[in-house]
Amino acid sequence: MGGYDIWKVNINSNGTCGKPENLGNKINTPGDEGFPFVTDDGVLYFASNGLTGFGGLDVFSADLNTNSTPINLGKPVNSEKDDFAFSFNKEKNGGYLSSNRSGEDNIYASVPVCQAQIATVVKYAKTGALLANARVVILDDKNNVLETKISNDKGEVTYDVECQRAYVIEVYKDGFVTKSFPVAKIKRRKGSHRCIY
């Protein structure tokens, strides 16, 4: 896709390798992607300077089981410098990464990772009817658009987000008033927020 890309390869039962396959433009960008690490349950951690980040290389995660959009792990994992070579221990909910945030490459330990989920249900306030095909936008606390999704026939949209960060949800649908509301910092592993529209 440009620069360094991440590929995958099957290991055959006899120990030989299959044909390498590029992970495609969901993971790879015109920039550089590298330093892949995959957990036992299929979560890919990798570094990229082509996805939106804090500066230099940032560490992202993507669930290979669901082909999800990569999520920036945020601070303190990422900094304005190069952050890369992340490894993760699910049992201890922590890991190691390399970074030049101090001016030279060092290894950092005990990096906490906490992710949560914001579940939004879009409804018509006057009748309580669920609204499908509404455009639901999630922004960070600096009003940068992170992702846009369309509500399903149950009015539902979910976003995988990071703990300890504030978000804003905006909802748009033709014929209705646009709504915007803040989501406070999520402190637990699973959080939810409902939008009445």
Instruction: Label the structural class.
Output: mainly beta
Distance between the termini: 40 Å
Number of strands: 15
* Rg of Cα set: 19 Å
Low-confidence stretches: 188-197
The major beta sheet can be summarized as: 4 strands, antiparallel
What amount of the residues lies in strands? 35-45%
Number of helices: 0
Order of helices and strands: EEEEEEEEEEEEEEE
What is the average per-residue confidence, as pLDDT, rounded to a whole number? 86
Helix percent reads under 10%
User: Shape from CA axes?
Assistant: globular
Tell me the quaternary state. Answer: single chain
Strand order within the widest sheet? 3-4-5-6
Summary of the model, kept short:
This protein is mainly β. The protein has strands at 7-8, 21-22, 33-38, 43-48, 58-63, 71-72, 83-89, 94-99, 106-108, 115-121, 135-140, 145-150, 156-162, 167-172, 179-183.
Describe the structure.
The radius of gyration is 19 Å and the shape is globular. The chain has strands at 7-8, 21-22, 33-38, 43-48, 58-63, 71-72, 83-89, 94-99, 106-108, 115-121, 135-140, 145-150, 156-162, 167-172, 179-183. With 197 residues, it is mainly beta. Helices cover 0% and strands 39% of the residues. A hairpin with a 4-residue loop joins strand 3 and strand 4.
Key phrases:
197 residues, mainly beta, 0% helix, 39% strand, disordered C terminus
Write the layout of secondary structure elements.
Blueprint: E1 7-8, E2 21-22, E3 33-38, E4 43-48, E5 58-63, E6 71-72, E7 83-89, E8 94-99, E9 106-108, E10 115-121, E11 135-140, E12 145-150, E13 156-162, E14 167-172, E15 179-183
Antiparallel strand pairs: 1-2, 3-4, 4-5, 5-6, 7-8, 8-9, 10-13, 11-12, 11-14, 14-15
